[in-house]
């Protein structure tokens, strides 16, 4: 990376009010609170109201992040929304959000990298700022996974929730800011986690809907193995690129997919639980929103201090992964 210091100068998050508990799910599919908690660590997740789309959740998170940065919407030069559940195919959710915010000067586009989307977005925005093209970028992870979840499928319905997290990026004093980025993809694993219906290969039709192809499908076991492997390798690479050791990490902010995946990362990094943000029990897997919600919540709770070395790491459909080291 060059000398220009780019960092996060504001954060915010939003989750819908409606709670879907494991007890609620027990009434919908053949499962139990005990099974879900043991296998995933999830106790409840949030579900968007019928009239809430991804841009509505993103809007609430973005407003808070912009205010937290001490900026106005007109100060934002770039908006990136990482999502797999856009409001529509097009216009992009980022452009819908630009209008809602009144961020008239901002360029805006969506980024599709599933649960890794927020880290991909941070890397993209950070580079726009370090080249001098833009001053302030708004990066949002937002998803309404409840709209693509099959609530008759116990393999997936227990995992996902809805929400949005946002970060404003800008220049920061020397010694702070992003120290490394690692982004990866392996398309050979694409079929392990996908939504086929409605795309150009499988356009929406009565048949595609009858076959449930408008829902997310996942091979959980294989994704689990991939996740454990890649959380480890991506974390190590991000630390190496930043010139840091495991012992230098003050706070791990991992993708919140499954407590067992997070625990495995903690073991490999030899970190204690108090050095990790964990909210998977309350929000489930919120895809691209998971890491920025975890970060914004930790900031709000006073768990992030100036000079702290943060490690972000996540994985998702694609398959994709990403990690980043940031000095707060
Ligand atoms: N309740 C009760 N039993 C269940 C449930 C359920 N909700 N779901 C599955 N089972 C059953 C299975 O049918 C299976 O029964 P069988 O042995 O008779 O066939 C048994 O429980 C064990 O199932 P496994 O799939 O082996 O369970 P596992 O321990 O692997 O846990 C889980 C499943 C939680 C999905 C896990 O594999 C996982 O977390 N994988 C990673 C998923 C993930 O992170 N996905 C998100 C990626 S990010 C993104 O891009 C959106």
From TrEMBL:
Active-site residues? 115, 255, 285
Known Pfam families for this protein? ACP_syn_III (PF08545), ACP_syn_III_C (PF08541)
Key words, A-Z: Acyltransferase, Cytoplasm, Fatty acid biosynthesis, Fatty acid metabolism, Lipid biosynthesis, Lipid metabolism, Multifunctional enzyme, Transferase
Instruction: Write down the chemical reaction(s) this protein catalyses.
Output: malonyl-[ACP] + acetyl-CoA + H(+) = 3-oxobutanoyl-[ACP] + CO2 + CoA
Q: Does the keyword Metal-binding apply?
A: no
Q: Where is the signal peptide?
A: none
- Which cellular compartments is it found in? Cytoplasm
Q: Specify the Beta-ketoacyl-[acyl-carrier-protein] synthase III N-terminal domain's residue ranges.
A: 109-187
Keyword Transferase (UniProt): yes
Q: Which Gene3D superfamilies match?
A: 3.40.47.10
Superkingdom to which the source organism belongs: Bacteria
* Molecular function GO labels: beta-ketoacyl-acyl-carrier-protein synthase III activity
The EC number(s) attached to this protein equal 2.3.1.180
Report the residue ranges that make up the Beta-ketoacyl-[acyl-carrier-protein] synthase III C-terminal domain in this protein. 239-328
- UniProt pathway annotation: Lipid metabolism; fatty acid biosynthesis
Question: Which HAMAP family does the entry mention?
Answer: FabH (MF_01815)
Q: What is known of its domains?
A: The last Arg residue of the ACP-binding site is essential for the weak association between ACP/AcpP and FabH.
The record's similarity note reads: Belongs to the thiolase-like superfamily. FabH family.
Quaternary structure (record): Homodimer.
Concerning PANTHER family, the annotation shows: 3-OXOACYL-[ACYL-CARRIER-PROTEIN] SYNTHASE 3, BETA-KETOACYL-[ACYL-CARRIER-PROTEIN] SYNTHASE III
What function does the entry list?
Answer: Catalyzes the condensation reaction of fatty acid synthesis by the addition to an acyl acceptor of two carbons from malonyl-ACP. Catalyzes the first condensation reaction which initiates fatty acid synthesis and may therefore play a role in governing the total rate of fatty acid production. Possesses both acetoacetyl-ACP synthase and acetyl transacylase activities. Its substrate specificity determines the biosynthesis of branched-chain and/or straight-chain of fatty acids.
Protein name according to UniProt = Beta-ketoacyl-[acyl-carrier-protein] synthase III
- Species annotation: Ferviditalea candida
User: Source taxonomy lineage?
Assistant: Bacteria, Bacillati, Bacillota, Bacilli, Bacillales
């Amino acid at each position: 990376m060059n000398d220009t210091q780019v960092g996060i100068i504001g954060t915010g998050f939003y989750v819908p009010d409606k709670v879907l508990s494991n007890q609620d799910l027990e009434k919908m599919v053949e499962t139990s609170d005990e099974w879900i908690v043991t296998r995933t660590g999830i106790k409840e997740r949030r579900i968007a109201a019928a009239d809430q789309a991804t841009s509505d959740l993103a809007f609430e998170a973005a407003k808070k992040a912009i205010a937290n940065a001490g900026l106005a919407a007109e100060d934002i030069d770039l908006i990136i929304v990482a999502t797999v559940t856009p409001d529509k195919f097009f216009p992009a959710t980022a452009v819908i959000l630009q209008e809602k915010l009144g961020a008239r000067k901002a360029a805006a586009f969506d980024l599709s990298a599933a649960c890794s989307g927020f880290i991909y977005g941070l890397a993209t925005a950070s580079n726009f700022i370090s080249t001098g093209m833009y001053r302030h970028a708004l990066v949002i992870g937002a998803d309404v996974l409840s709209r693509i979840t099959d609530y008759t499928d116990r393999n997936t319905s227990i995992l996902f929730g809805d929400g949005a997290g946002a970060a404003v990026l800008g220049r920061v004093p020397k010694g702070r800011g992003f120290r490394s980025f690692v982004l990866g993809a392996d398309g050979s694993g694409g079929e392990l986690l996908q939504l086929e219906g409605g795309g150009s290969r499988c356009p929406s039709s009565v048949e595609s809907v009858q076959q449930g192809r408008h829902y997310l499908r996942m091979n959980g076991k294989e994704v689990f193995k991939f996740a454990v492997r890649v959380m480890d390798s991506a974390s190590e690479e991000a630390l190496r690129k930043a010139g840091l050791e495991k012992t230098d990490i003050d706070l791990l902010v991992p993708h919140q997919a499954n407590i067992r995946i997070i625990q495995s990362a903690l073991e490999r990094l030899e970190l204690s639980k108090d050095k990790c943000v964990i909210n998977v029990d309350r929000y489930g897997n919120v895809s691209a929103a998971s890491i920025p919600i975890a970060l914004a919540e930790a900031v709000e709770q006073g768990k992030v201090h100036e000079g702290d070395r943060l490690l972000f790491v996540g994985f998702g459909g694609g398959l994709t992964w990403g990690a980043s080291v940031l000095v707060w």
